[in-house]
Amino acid sequence: MSEVFATTGTIAAIATAVVPQQGSVGIVRVSGSQAIAIAQTIFHAPGRQAWESHRILYGYIRHPQTRELVDEALLLIMQAPRSYTREDVVEFHCHGGIMAVQQVLQLCLENGARLAQPGEFTLRAFLNGRLDLTQAEGIADLVGARSPQAAQTALAGLQGKLAHPIRQLRANCLDILAEIEARIDFEEDLPPLDDKAIISAIENIAAEVTKLLATKDKGELLRTGLKVAIVGRPNVGKSSLLNAWSRSDRAIVTDLPGTTRDVVESQLVVGGIPVQVLDTAGIRETADQVEKIGVERSRRAASAADLVLLTIDASTGWTDGDQEIYEQVQHRPLILVINKIDLVETELITSCHYPNTIHQVVTTAASQNQGIDALETAILEIVQAGKAQAADMDLAINQRQAAALTQAKISLEQVKTTIAQQLPLDFWTIDLRGAIQSLGEITGEEVTESVLDRIFSRFCIGK
Description:
- This protein has helices at 35-42, 99-110, 120-127, 133-143, 148-158, 163-185, 195-213, 216-224, 238-246, 289-304, 320-329, 346-350, 372-386, 399-420, 425-443, 449-456, and strands spanning 11-14, 25-31, 43-44, 55-62, 69-78, 89-95, 114-115, 226-232, 264-270, 273-279, 307-313, 334-339, 361-363.
- It is an alpha/beta fold.
- Its EC number is 3.6.-.-.
């Protein structure tokens, strides 16, 4: 049995970020049969405070042997089954920073707990029936959410909005299986099976599976975000564009070409989608060794980006240098940004000639904060054109769930083929059971140890 699956004993971990000189409160969480006993050993609650479930006690954490004071803290008690893990759980709410929480955790480990594995608290919640697998993954998505929409989607999963339709589809498959197996076992006592009705029911299930699969790309966007690279010749205003877009001074801006020597990053949210913007060094041939390294990094950033913003100077128009850069990045989704329009006449902008293979063009005056809204609109248009959009914006499946749904769809299609080939009823049940198993893997009703390892090992320790 794998390490992450070994869920015996009482576990403890720091449940909040540990950052020096930051954070007013730090939490140490303990779960298991010895949780309350450990708390009683190291926590002193003055007066007549009642040690009851779902109460908060005020007091002091002391070393049980030396009685040395470790911290002034609050203690939250949650007795089974009314806790996150459905085990006895206590939480020590200590002062933040590094030392207090680490000392409290060490006391818990010295008095009967062991250090929790990544995701083990949530794993116990799943194994004890507190959560299904989609809800557990929703918790991980909520912790890692990088935009309000990503958080809302994660909350939808946590509330069971994905599990409910999956369970209904699985129940429908089980109903069909029961109909078929009844004919196998009691063929002489029941009317003949209606093949057309079976096929129709399978097609309806497959159609619902397809709808859920359509949310995969949206889910990937919300979880991983969009990587956007701003590329172009030196001094076309790439850094000014980044600063105007991020409303900050992340990049140094001067009139000297080649000021940006490395890739500068900024994290934004556009239309609910996390966007990582990369301001790259101006791409040109140069003898400067440091600038040459920056140019090479710019090329690598552009080749790895989901979207390229090819920026040119409106006052110079499309140049041979722009053409050379375009030939290097044209294989990526691309928006042409004609910058510095505040420095030229309108006629010069409209007469700018560029390759007719470029379909998205935005004009900006980054130094004047003009054109940013139009740029974001163009980005969203490209995303919507290239990514499947869910009819229900609350739902967005992940890669594991998509793989299971894909396998379920394949199995359902194979059932239809088996029926069309007029094979015996026993053959119908084989692939139907495969679809049932694949759907069960999503919620955890059909789950293997390796799947749990893969899911919960990605959690942070303490969750």
